[in-house]
Design a protein that fits this description.
Blueprint lengths: L1 H19 L5 H25 L4 H27 L1
């Protein structure tokens, strides 16, 4: 359930940021969101590893935790610039 919450929060945050930021700043905001979400994902990975999970167990989950919101952010960026 926690994984779903992280993904939903990331998707909603990315979509909201890119929707309400003025057009000239959207590329910058998408890049900033990518960097910030990487930091959040790394922190969450570190937390999982410190609780005894192995990297092999955590990595597939964190690929989705990072990849889905970032893909949505850049997809929204691309869609809004058309």
């Amino acid at each position: 359930m926690r994984t779903v919450i992280f993904i939903v929060v990331g998707v909603v945050l990315a979509a909201a940021l890119l929707r309400w930021i003025p057009m000239p700043y959207r590329t910058w905001v998408a890049g900033l969101f990518t960097a910030a979400w990487l930091a959040v994902s790394a922190w969450n990975l570190r937390t999982g590893l410190s609780h005894g999970y192995t990297l092999a167990e955590e990595l597939p989950i964190h690929v989705a935790l990072f990849g889905i919101p970032v893909a949505v952010a850049w997809g929204v960026w691309w869609w809004l610039r058309r």
